[in-house]
Amino acid sequence: MKRSLFGLLCIGVGLLLAACGSDDSLRPPPKESRTLTILGNGSVLDRFTGELWVIGDVAYTTTWGNRGTVGNAVKIWDVSGDVPTLIDSLIVPNAVTLGDVQASDDGQLLVVATEFSPGAIMLYSLADPRKPQFITRYATALTDPGVHTADVTRVNGRLYAFLCVDIGNTGSARLVIVDITDPANPTQVFTQPMGSPYTHDVFVRDGILFIAVWNDGIKIWDIGGGGRGGTPSNPVELSTLATVGGEAHNIWWYRNANTGERRYAFVGQEGPGAVGKFASGDIHVVDVSDMSAPREVAFFHVPGAGTHNFWVDENRGILYAAYYNGGVRAIDVTGDLETCDPANRDLTGRCNLSAMGREVGHGLLDGPPVYVWGVQLAGGHLYASDMLNGIWKLDPLP
């Protein structure tokens, strides 16, 4: 979902690592980390593959940037077998790159974010998931010059799209919240400039809105579940936390399906990178037990690689992270993540989860070079979108 605008400056054939900075060389995963079994690959070589969404036996992948062909296609896949099979390509007009693709919780609506000017979201009916039918294009002066990400979530019975909009002529990025309960007539209910310099992504659960605002870290707002009277049209800010190193890119607020505990939020950091060459950035762990006073308590680091999007198996407590050139990593996030031996703490006092042996699985490291953008757990399988190779289907950890 979600390539940083800064990252655009660091991409291209023949870029030197020094141009954007680099991490230490990529090392093999720890011995305790199990190899995830690859079932099959749906190859995409004409465009860079971006975001991923799977519903039932159909998957959608977006395309991004320019690989000789502009990234204006949504690829539609049959994933009923081991090898994803291309069904069709949905070409999105008036777009030069696509970001997010996501279906509504009832499986009836598909939303696609488009960049650059004129930025928009495209809404399609999924009455037939293999043949999305165009409903409307939502674009206003406030979605220009591009909608980088669009999270589709239901709040108090109504369906909303939370749009993170690129930096415009005003020099500010912004959040735009749109009511899409009636997909033929989307209605803006809220907007506010924010981000340093980007407003990149959101995570919504139980009436709480988390926003990744890059070097400002994360914001936490009540939109119906924080006890402060907030709504999607009138959010109430609960707190802000600047994460170590900034570059806050994406967020997952973890709810333990077995205990109901909602103690930790995971924040992805997207540092400098170059497609197919290198990446950087850690996963940051924030204790949000007290929403008014969040604390960063731990981190996970892969030498020589950087995280992008991730997905949490909340039944088993495993976070699956796309790690660009570092493949897919599976991290045990059960239990207490902020108590550790002094030898496993950094100078900020945070626990180093990688040093603590929390990596329990890895994938896509033994084949062709990869640059994994996103992952999703669906229907008992793990799917990964790879900018270089398309879509992969894997077995998750047993």
CATH class: Mainly Beta
Main beta-sheet strand count, sense and barrel state = 5 strands, mixed
What oligomeric assembly is this protein in? single chain
Amino- and carboxy-terminal Cα gap: 27 Å
> What percent of the residues sit in helical stretches (DSSP H or I)?
under 10%
Number of helices: 1
CATH superfamily: YVTN repeat-like/Quinoprotein amine dehydrogenase
Strand percentage, roughly? 35-45%
Uncertain parts: 1-24
Number of domains: 1
Structural class: mainly beta
From the 3D structure, determine the CATH topology.
Methylamine Dehydrogenase, Chain H
- Backbone shape: globular
Outline the structure in words.
The two termini are 27 Å apart. Strand 7 (97-103) and strand 8 (109-115) form a beta hairpin. It is globular, with a radius of gyration of 19 Å. Residues 1-24 have low confidence and may be disordered. Strands 1-27-25-24-23 form a five-stranded mixed sheet, with no helix packed on it. It has a five-stranded mixed sheet with strand order 19-20-21-22-26, with no helix packed on it. It has a four-stranded antiparallel sheet with strand order 2-30-29-28, with no helix packed on it. With 398 residues, it is an all-beta fold. It is built from one helix and 30 strands. The protein has one helix at 5-8, and strands spanning 34-35, 38-42, 48-55, 58-64, 73-78, 85-91, 97-103, 109-115, 120-125, 133-138, 147-155, 158-165, 174-179, 187-193, 201-205, 208-212, 218-222, 236-241, 248-253, 264-269, 283-287, 295-300, 310-313, 318-322, 328-332, 351-352, 359-363, 372-378, 381-386, 390-394. The protein has a single domain (5-394), classed as Methylamine Dehydrogenase, Chain H (7 Propeller).
